[in-house]
Design goal:
517 residues, alpha/beta, 6-stranded mixed sheet, 5-stranded mixed sheet, 11 strands, 45% helix
């Protein structure tokens, strides 16, 4: 049994598919070998391969595959997790592997219990069993409730087949079962003032409804051999470390109907010393970790592909013309935004759809939107584009993706040509606002409003770490700052709310005041 842990690899399951997630790594020998093996196994089952899904950002979305080809979706999730883990292994060695839901197959493959081909065969047999034996009318939903509260609602609904499926984070629990019963639990959750989000899942995983599929799966994989483990694996279903004495195939069969206790796994590993959690793919697991334990680093291993193909070359003309602005694919940007929001906010990736209203459907209020806009600007390198007030008011990610894509295209086109110098009247110079003076005003404003001694409010003090001013209070103070300095729409720039110190905020305020004058 593992007693000391530092680095944990997380192998994601449902929600881990992103079109073209391996586009930038397709030529890596490790990735190429995984995709070649998985596609060969897919052919054994009379199915097409998944290489195109994972290397072409223009491939069908997860939602489309849920409707049209859940077999390919499951196999793509497995291949992406294993390939991303192989890439991560080139940089560091994990102390423990943890699979989330179907990600346990990838974790056991990485650990050597099954080779890549047999891992893919496990996924294929599992998918065939689900397609043949899963009853119609199942659903899954993520609730912003602790597992105990979710279990109480499931008990109150008292519907056979309804179950707590996954405990993801202190206030995120997934329920699974008959569609009508899941809808009832969602309404009860919302009546308690908490958010409930229907997941885009092809089957009601981790519920008793999959009993027949689990039996068929067990019969189909009886002939596959289990090999000795070469790496340490912790199972959120078994709630402990696995060993060569564990019947791993029986565990994978039981997993279809048993709950996933991911939160407990993260907390136990953290207590054992884990300080770094590496998500092998992008499904929001790193965000769940950050919501669950303190003082850890958690991040996905890859970024989503941004473009759906190179922009066409400009036509050759006999006279000089400005370079065409490259067109950035908004669909690729949307996928990247979905993963960024899921990872940062700890939501299941499938809950973050392009047409969901950020506030009404996902509960992302104006404070969180401003904070996320700062992350979006940094993630995409938008420079000053994010200062455009239109960014923060977009109601959906699809509309935000359009703006981001436009801004990226304009930036890629290079700076506009400088205007010719003409002997026209020159306007009076704009007075530059002194940031030091702004800082003094900010110090007094914060001290007076928050009741702090003025000498405690220094320019370099971290607003949250040193002064205890959390994100909610920062948003409230930003409103007072905007009113005090007459910033009007400038404060909608997401950079304002994410500045860690008053000195940096003073620079932005001075810049905005200078521009306004």
């Amino acid at each position: 049994m593992k007693t000391a842990v530092d680095t944990v690899f997380l192998l994601p399951g449902q929600g881990a598919y992103t079109p073209g997630i391996l586009a930038a790594e397709a030529d890596s020998p490790a990735v190429a070998e995984v995709l070649r093996t998985v596609d060969r196994v897919a052919g054994e089952f009379g199915r097409g391969g998944v290489r195109g899904l994972l290397t072409d950002p223009g491939s069908p979305s997860a939602a489309e595959l849920v409707r049209t080809d859940s077999f390919a979706l499951q196999l793509a999730v497995f291949a992406a997790a294993v390939a991303c883990a192989r890439l991560a292994e080139e940089r560091q060695t994990p102390d423990v592997l943890v699979g989330h839901s179907m990600g346990e197959i990838a974790a056991l493959t990485l650990a050597g219990a099954f080779d890549t081909a047999d891992g893919a065969r496990l996924v294929c047999h599992r998918s065939e069993a689900l397609l043949a034996h899963c009853p119609q009318g199942g659903a899954m939903a993520a609730l912003e409730l602790p597992a105990g509260s979710a279990a109480h609602l499931v008990g109150a609904a008292a519907v056979p087949g309804l179950a707590v499926a996954v405990s993801n984070a202190p206030r995120q629990t997934v329920v699974s079962g008959p569609e009508e019963a899941v809808g009832t639990v969602m309404r009860l959750t919302e009546a308690l003032g908490a958010r409930a989000t229907r997941l885009n899942a092809p089957f009601p995983f981790h519920s008793p409804l999959l009993g027949a599929a689990a039996q068929a799966f067990g019969e189909a994989i009886a002939g596959l051999a289990q090999r000795p483990l070469r790496r340490t694996v912790y199972s959120p279903v078994a709630e402990g470390y696995l060993s060569d004495a564990t019947d791993l195939k029986a565990l994978l069969v039981r997993q279809l109907t048993a709950p996933v206790r991911f939160l407990a796994a993260v907390r136990e590993l953290h207590a054992a010393g884990a300080s770094r959690f590496v998500e092998c793919g992008r499904a929001g697991l790193s965000g769940l970790v950050l919501r669950s334990v303190p003082d850890v680093a958690a991040e996905p291993t890859v970024r989503a592909a941004r473009r759906a193909g190179a922009a066409p070359a400009p036509a050759v003309v006999p006279a000089p013309v400005p370079a065409a602005v490259p067109v950035v694919d908004a669909a690729g940007v949307l996928e990247e935004l979905r993963q960024l929001y899921a990872t940062t906010l700890g939501y299941p990736a499938e809950a973050i759809t392009g047409d969901a209203d950020l506030e009404a459907d996902l509960g992302i209020d104006s404070l969180k939107r401003a904070e996320m806009l700062g992350k979006v600007a940094a993630h995409f390198g938008l420079r000053d584009s994010a200062a455009d007030g239109r960014f923060i008011v977009q109601p959906t990610l699809a509309e935000l993706a359009e703006l981001v894509a436009t801004a990226l295209g304009e930036q890629s086109g290079g700076p506009a040509p400088a205007p010719a110098v003409v002997p026209a009247p020159v306007p009076a110079a704009v007075p530059v606002v002194d940031a030091a003076g702004v800082l003094e005003e900010l110090r007094q404003l914060y001290a007076t409003t928050l009741g702090y001694p003025a000498e405690a409010i220094t320019g370099d003090a971290d607003l949250e770490a040193d002064l205890g001013i959390d994100s909610l209070k920062r948003a409230e103070m930003l409103g007072k700052v905007a009113a005090h300095f007459g910033l009007r729409d400038s404060a909608a720039d997401g950079r304002f709310i994410v500045q860690p110190t008053l000195a940096e905020l003073a620079e932005l305020v001075a810049e905005a005041q200078t521009a306004a004058r």
